Amino acid sequence: MDSSKYTVEYIPEFADCDKKYDIKPQVLLAWCAELAGNHLRSRNITREQMWKDGQVFLLTRAAVHFEKVPQYNNKLYMTTWEGGTKGSQFTRKFVVKDTDENILCDVDTMWALVNPHSHKICRPSEYIYEQIPCEDEVEAKVIKFKAEAPEKIKDYTFVYSDIDANSHVNNGVYLRLMSDIIPQKLTDKHLKTLRINFIHECRQGETVGLYLEINDKICTAEGRFPDGKVSFEAQAEFV
Q1: Which helix (H) or strand (E) holds 191?
Q2: Domain identity same for 78 and 181
């Protein structure tokens, strides 16, 4: 049995979708994280064991390319595989297909291996479990991007409901914050591409300024701490 890939069936529920019945970006990202963990678990690499061994994966970058945004109540199949390592990080790919095997979207991600006890980043050579890399590529690509002169929209202070079991702000919250500051004339459209970089984690009670730059149908957002340090940067292109 090929264990290099792992596939799960999903059906987007009503609460998973926006007013267009499109799946919310933060839900898709949560599914990616869940699927990655379950793929490892299927090979007896559990989160609990990794924590005990002082090694956990933290998502640092993600890019999504949409052919068609998955929608409410439409059954889909999501497949993931390890892409190997790139520099100091691990790569993982995802593809989402409908019941006719048409690709709806795909995802390129990068992950840091971190010791949860010391919070130090581990080198890929320190990874103690087996990797089964697959060379299959996806359309989405993690690339560098930067807002040149973003405008501050508002401040946001993170609250209890933003925090996950790792005791810091859940990754999906940052995508929600970006969606909330993009003008309705764009959010009424469908997503074509989405990218996000997680730079410095946030915790409950911390405040970031939310900045936005719009260039035609491309929106680039940043979250900045009061000292100017960037917490996250995200970019969405609509069609």
Answers
A1: strand 191-198
A2: no
Based on the structure, what is the number of domains in the chain? 2
Please tell me the distance from the alpha carbon of residue 234 to that of residue 232, in angstroms, as a whole number.
7
Number of neighbours of residue 133 by Cβ within 10 angstroms: 14
Between the two ends of the chain, the Cα-to-Cα distance in Å is 40
Question: What is the DSSP pairing of strand 151-157 with strand 56-66?
Answer: unpaired
Domain interval for residue 122? 5-126
Give Cα 229 to chain centroid, integer Å. Answer: 21
Name the nearest CA neighbour of 126 among 58, 55, 50.
Answer: 55
Express as a percent the part of the chain with pLDDT over 70: 100
User: Does the predicted model carry a pTM greater than 0.70?
Assistant: yes
Q: 1 pLDDT band (50/70/90 cuts)?
A: low
Among 92, 183, 84, 194, CA closest to 145: 194
For residue 167, how many C-alpha atoms fall within 13 Å in the half-sphere facing its CB?
A: 3
